[in-house]
Write a structure and sequence with these properties.
6 strands; alpha+beta; six-stranded antiparallel β-sheet
Length: about 100
């Protein structure tokens, strides 16, 4: 995972690279991991469909320049991520 200001480059299982915008990141003491929520750059410009938001666990490097994305492994992690996303979106609606 390469970090830009608010962008990351995600490489899928086929080796294809996709530039994505970071929605937000957070740490979970419960699971001892960091998480990133992101979506493909340009997705917010399409009015006809909802933006597909992706989530991954990640391990940042010491210099915080790169990191490795890892899949979410448990239903408990997904539930926690969904709660964080709902809270984030509710706060955005208030602004």
């Amino acid at each position: 995972m390469d970090h830009g200001e608010n962008n990351i480059t995600v490489v899928d299982e086929n080796g294809n690279e996709q530039l994505c915008e970071v929605l937000f990141t957070f740490d979970s003491e419960e699971f001892g991991k960091s998480y990133v929520l992101y979506y493909p750059v340009g997705a917010e410009e399409s009015d006809d469909e909802e933006i597909e938001i992706h989530a991954s666990a990640f391990t940042p490097t010491e210099d915080n320049e790169d990191g490795e994305l890892m899949p979410i492994e448990t239903d408990e992690e997904w539930d926690m991520i969904e709660e964080m996303l709902e809270t984030f979106l509710a706060e955005q609606d208030e602004e």
